[in-house]
Amino acid sequence: MSQEENIFIAKRKLVDAIYRSANLEGIAVTFAQTIDILNDINVEGVKPSEIGKVCCLRDAWHYIIDNINAKLDLAFLEELHQFVTKTELPYKYVGVIRYDDVLISGTTWRPEIPNPEKLHTELIDMLKIENSTDRALSIMLWIMRSQIFKDGNKRVAMLVANKILIENGCGIVSVPVELDGTFKSMLVEYYESSNMRNIKEWLYDNCIDGVNRTIEKEWKFIILYRQRKE
CA-CA distance, 164 to 170, in Å (whole number)? Predict the structure, then answer.
């Protein structure tokens, strides 16, 4: 589809994308509550901190849509992180590449403290991936595993993937609420192995909306070709 068509779809799917992302982060809001929060309606039973996180996701989505053709670099990731975490993290961590250790739930694996120069080089290399969907999912998973920031990495990663997909007319990526558990299990497996093949194929099959399925055979071929090379 064209970029304009994909932006239209993104705006129509915005509430659903925010609802899914919020639940992925353990923010227990219903779809109806998400709609009310985004419409500035008071929602009983939802903590102000959780309302703030939902509003931050809204602002971050508006940012990527308004800057859909902006250059994707570390500065863009830092800016996006500010939108995502401005109400929940101490100021010293907002929009700042992580400089201390972090723990990951569900695994004893620990990511190294990020080196900005190494991150820059790795991002440039992945931006060269020719297939837009492959590029989007690869960069998304790389951000998650690198744990570039103190918190909010999955949210930033998902938003970046959507920027790439929308920019190239390739749909929207979000994890359905009913598949949260499967995704998190596969994510831990990826963290520990650094092999993103299985989770990337699963994401394509289950988490991308608006994609033209006529290109599915081409996508599967790319995955199988890479498996043979590796």
Answer: 8
pLDDT tens figures, 207-226:
998 765 544 545 554 554 45
Residue 206, both tokens:
């289950």
The domain over range 3-229 is classified in CATH as 1.10.3290.10? yes
What is the C-alpha to C-alpha distance for residues 149 and 216, in angstroms, rounded to an integer? Answer: 33
219 within 8 A of 200, measured Cβ to Cβ: no
> Tokens 């939108």, residue?
83
The structure's pTM equals 0.89
Helix (H, G, I), strand (E, B) or coil at 25: coil
Per residue in 113-153, pLDDT (tens digit) is: 999 999 999 999 999 999 999 999 999 999 999 999 999 99
3-state secondary structure of 188: helix
Cβ proximity of 54 and 22 under 8 Å: yes
Calpha distance 92→88 (Å, rounded): 12
Ordered by start, the domain boundaries in the chain are: 3-229
